[in-house]
Automatic annotation (TrEMBL):
Keywords: Cell membrane, Membrane, Transferase, Transmembrane, Transmembrane helix. This is Arylsulfatase. It comes from Prevotella bivia. Pfam families: Sulfatase (PF00884). The lineage of its organism: Bacteria, Pseudomonadati, Bacteroidota, Bacteroidia, Bacteroidales. The chain crosses the membrane at residues 21-45, 57-76, 88-107, 139-164, 185-205. It is found in: Cell membrane. GO terms for molecular function: phosphotransferase activity, phosphate group as acceptor. GO terms for cellular component: plasma membrane. It is a multi-pass membrane protein.
Amino acid sequence: MAENITPMKISAKIALISHKLLAPIRANSAFFIFMYLLGILVAYIEIPHQPKATVYANLWAELFLDLYIVCLFLMIFPKHVRRWIRAILYFMLYGISLVDVFCWEKFQTTINPSMLLLVGETNGREASEFFTSYFSKDIFFSNVGLVLLLLLIHILVSRFPLLSRHVSCITRIKEKLPNFYKKPLLIKSIGGILVLIFLVISAISSAHNKEMMRRMFSLRTIGAVERELSLYQRQPGTEAQFYLPPYRLAFAIFSNELASHQIDQLIATKDKVQVDSCTYTTPNIVLIIGESYGKHHSHQYGYFMPTTPRQEALERQGLLVPFRDVVSPYNLTSFVFKNIFSLQVIGDTKDWCDYPLFPEVFRKAGYHVTFITNQFLPRAKQAVYDFSGGFFLNHPELSKAMFDSRNSTLYKYDAGLLNDYDNHQAQNNTEHNLILFHLMGQHVNYGQRTPARAKHFKAEDYKTIRHDLGEKRRQTLADYDNAVLYNDSIVDQIIERFKDKEAIVIYTPDHGEECYEGHRGFICRNHSSNIDYNLARYEFEIPFWIYTSPSYKAKHPEVFQQIIAAKDKKFMIDALPHLLLYLGGIHTKDYRDEHNILSKNYRENRPRILKGTTDYDKLDRSKMEHQVPLRKKKK
C-alpha cells in the first residue's frame, strides 16, 4: 500500500534538507562569521583612491559561496580534527590579509607577482633595512590596525567564557518562547532555505569569475600569463578577479613558478649561440648598472642640488656624453634585468628566454667577462626557481656560460666593489674585457647607502626650498640625495680605473625612483598597473651616459661622433645589448642593427612600452607634476 504523502511530511523533508544545508555554517559559525567580516573589511580598506572606485561588484555573494564551500569541506573531518584545521586556516588567512593590507598601506598595491619577486630578491640586510624603514608604531593606527582589532575581537569571543555567556542569552530567550517550536517545521527551516537561495544566486553570479580564474591557472608559461593580463587591461571587465588576499598570493606563487621554467629555455638557448666574427672594436667595455636612480635628482639633468659634480666635470672635458631621452621598460629590478641581459626587445613575439644573453655572446666571441654585483650572489644548493631578480644570473650552468669571474662577497657600501675589483678581479683581465658592475646605488633604505664621512646634505638644507615637507621627510630627501652624490663618486672611481686604457664606460640604472617629487608625497616606487605621465616621469625616466677614454676617443673618432649624434634620440634600455655588441665588433645573427642607437639604421620611433601596457610617448603630459623647487603659495 502506497505511503500517504501529507503536507506535514513534505515540510519535514524540506526541514531536513534545510537543516543539512545550514549545518556547515552552524558547525563552523565563528569561522564563517569572522572570515566573512575579514574578507569584507580588507576589500573596503583596499578601495583605490580613484574617482568612482569601489569594491568588487560580486564581493558579498562570491565570498559567501567561497566560505560555504570551505565550511562544507571542514565537515568531512571529525570535530576534534576540524578544530585544528580551522586554527591553521585562521593563522594563514589573518596572516595573508595583514601582509596584503600592509602592502596596500605602504605601496598602494596588494600582493601580486611583482611583490613576491621583491621578497625573493631581498637578502637579509635589505630585509632588516626594510623593517627599519617601514615598521613603526604608526602602523597600528593605520588600516593594518583594523585587521588586528578584528583578530583581537575574534580571540576574545572565542576564548573568554564571560563573553560566551552573552551569546547563550539567545538560547534562554528561545526557551521562553515555547510556541515557536509549535509552528510548522517549514518555518523552523527558514534559515536553510535562505542559505539555499543565496547559494544559487552566488553560484550564478560567480560562475564567470571562477571560469576566468580557472583559465588563468591553466596557462603554461609566464609569457602567456603576461599576455593574458595585457589583454585584460585592454578589455576591462573581462579579467579574473583575485578578490581575496589568499587568491592573490596563490596567483603570485603560480606566476613565479612558471617563471622558473624559463631556466630550462635559457639553458637550451645558450647552446645555440653562434658568433660569426669579432673585430674587438672596443678592447675594454665597462657597463655600470645602478639602482633606483631618479633622473630628476641628478644635477646633470637639472636638479637643484649639486649631486653629480664629477660626472659634470667629465662632461665638460668632452669625455662623458649624457643621453637626454632614455627610459626603462619596467620599474622593477627583476623584470629590467631580464630585458637588458636578453637580446630580445620589447615587441618581439618570442619570450625573453628564447634569445641569448649578451654576456654569453661576448664570451663566445673571446671577451673575458667579469660580473661584480652588490646585490645578487650565487648561493649553495640553489633551486632552479630562485625567483629573485638574479635567478638566471645565479643558476650555476648559466652563470658559467656568461661569466669568467665573479665576486663572492656583498659589501655595506658600493666602494667595496672597487676594492674587490682591484684585489680579486683586475688581474684576471685579458686583452679584451667586458666588465659589469652592479651597484646597490640608491636602493632603500637611503640613509644606509652612504658612509657617514661622505654625507653632505642635511635636512636643514631643504628647509626653504622644500618648505612643504616636514623635518622627517626632509631628512629622507637629504639621505636620497646623499646616495646620489655618493653614487657620483663611485662611478667616477670606476672611470678612473679605465681612463688610461682604450675603453668605453656606459652607465644606466635599472629604473627610476620617487623621493617626495612635487606634491606626490611618496618614496620608492608604485607597482600599480596604472601608469600616468607623472609615474612614468619619475620611475621610468633614467639617466644614461657613455664615457670614452682619451685614447679610445682618439683612435675611434667615428664612434665618438656617433655617440654625440645619438645623445638626443629616444631610447629604451631593453635595446642596450645590441649597442654593446656593436661596440664589441661582434657579428652574430642575433644582433639587430635597427636596435643599435649608434647605427644610421636605428629605429627611433619604435614604441617604448612600459610594463607591457603603456606607450611612454603617448602619455598625456598636460597634468605634469611640477618638479621641485616648490614656491610658497602667496597668502
